[in-house]
């Protein structure tokens, strides 16, 4: 397990990277690019692409 910065992971699109607060409506994530997913699933995809905090500080 690794630590990542969770900042705006629930608002960032796992498909195109666009970040907007209005993309998340309760449990539904819907982006202007057309991507739709359960909000928690989308956030988990975003988290999986982020570098670990340890890697960032070591570089």
What is the topological layout?
Layout: E1 24-25, E2 28-30, E3 36-38, H1 39-49, H2 53-58
Antiparallel strand pairs: 1-2, 2-3
Q: Overall pLDDT, averaged?
A: 90
How many helical stretches?
2
**Radius of gyration in whole Å, from Cα?**
12 Å
Shape: elongated
Q: What amount of the residues lies in strands?
A: 5-15%
Helix content: 25-40%
| N-C termini distance | 19 Å
Number of strands: 3
**Residue runs with pLDDT of under 50 for 5 or more positions:** none
The largest pleated sheet is described as:
3 strands, antiparallel
State the secondary-structure class.
alpha+beta
Order of helices and strands: EEEHH
User: Largest beta sheet: what is the strand line-up?
Assistant: 1-2-3
Description:
It is a single chain. By secondary structure, the protein is α+β, with helices and mostly antiparallel strands. The chain has helices at residues 39-49, 53-58; strands at 24-25, 28-30, 36-38. It has a 3-stranded antiparallel β-sheet with strand order 1-2-3. It is elongated. The protein starts with 23 loop residues before the first strand and ends with a helix.
């Amino acid at each position: 397990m690794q630590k990542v910065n969770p900042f705006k992971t629930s608002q960032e699109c796992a498909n195109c990277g666009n970040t907007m607060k209005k993309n998340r409506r309760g449990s539904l994530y819907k982006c202007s690019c057309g991507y739709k997913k359960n909000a928690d699933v989308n956030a988990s995809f975003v988290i999986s692409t982020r570098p670990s905090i340890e890697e960032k500080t070591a570089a």
